[in-house]
Amino acid sequence: MTEPELTYEGRRLPRPHDEVVDQGLGFDIATLFDRRRALRLLGLGAAGAAVAACSPSTPPSPSTPTSTAPTTGATSGSAAPAALSEIPEETAGPYPGDGSNGPDVLEQSGVVRSDIRSSFGASSGTAQGVPMTLELVIANLAQGGSPYAGVAVYVWQCDREGRYSMYSQGAQNENYLRGVQIADPSGRVRFTSIFPACYPGRWPHIHFEVYPDQASITDADKAIATSQVALPQNVCDTVYAQPGYEQSVSNMRRLSLSTDVVFRDDSGALQLGTVAGDIASGYTVTLNVGVR
Fold first, then answer.
1. Please, which residues bridge with residue 152 across strands?
2. Residue 167, Cβ neighbours under 10 Å: how many?
């Protein structure tokens, strides 16, 4: 007699004789995304047409530039929606540096800073690359979208070579491209950084976590939002033509926003940064972030 096929939430178990938690990374990732989609659908049903009205229009195609000349100071990326939606909750990835997966930079004195290009404390390295300023404007959706002043925002990203400080070979002893800022009365935080690389398997991005206040940053469980900023393709193509970013060119050819493991749900519509600037003066990446 044929043994019945064992399933979990409608999907076949690849290891039917093991526990659900031991089905492997691929099964776990699929479960995570299925649950996230379900939560979004439930949220839409609860809010009804009001939420639908807050949704952005058709997301830009990842292969179609939204600016004809990013090197002349034009803007690129998504425009802020008329009514801000909640930022999608995303994975912190394997290199958060917040104590949830190994080292904890948030326990170190000096992590609250605006210029994150150089390491601090006992480390001394500096990340090289095209200059970039990151501006996140945090809104409190529970208070009608008012500025979320006083929240602490922790950002981290890879360097020009695609390495994460504190984790990657050649950068384990550094803590550059990591830092915290406290939102001003307009809910804005600003970081001076470099344009990140595109490494194999992921669309170019920047990670961030939002905490209720500065005192909360030493406990990763207190983060009220974890998400990522996506970078527009036309600006990436321009930056990756510069010396030092050679590996990013071939990596980008294999990727799109619609297939990226994080941004594929909506092609990054709510996470695609607006970019202004050029190679000579550097770029400014801005994203409006709705948090509950």
1. 182, 211
2. 17
Whether the pLDDT of residue 50 is over 50: the answer is: no
Q: How many CB atoms lie within 10 A of CB 266?
A: 17
CA distance 55 to 44: 10
Residue with tokens 């009001």: 50
d(CA 237, CA 244): 13
Sign of the alpha-carbon dihedral angle for 242, 74, 80, 190: positive
Residues 278-290 have pLDDT tens digits of: 999 999 999 999 9
Contacts (Cβ under 8 Å, ≥6 apart) of 122: none
pLDDT of residue 83: 76
Going by their DSSP bridges, the two strands 282-291 and 131-140 should be labelled as: parallel
> How far apart (Å, rounded) are the C-alpha atoms in residues 113 and 124?
15
Q: How far apart are CA 177 and CA 97, in angstroms?
A: 11
* Cα 197 versus chain centre, distance: 13
CA 68 and chain centroid, separation: 25
Rounded Cα–Cα distance for residues 258 and 63 (Å): 10
Q: Confirm whether pTM is higher than 0.85.
A: no
Tell me the HSE value of 28 on the side-chain side, using a 13 A CA sphere. Answer: 7
Cα–Cα distances (Å) from 278 to 14, 75, 160, in that order, read 49, 10, 17
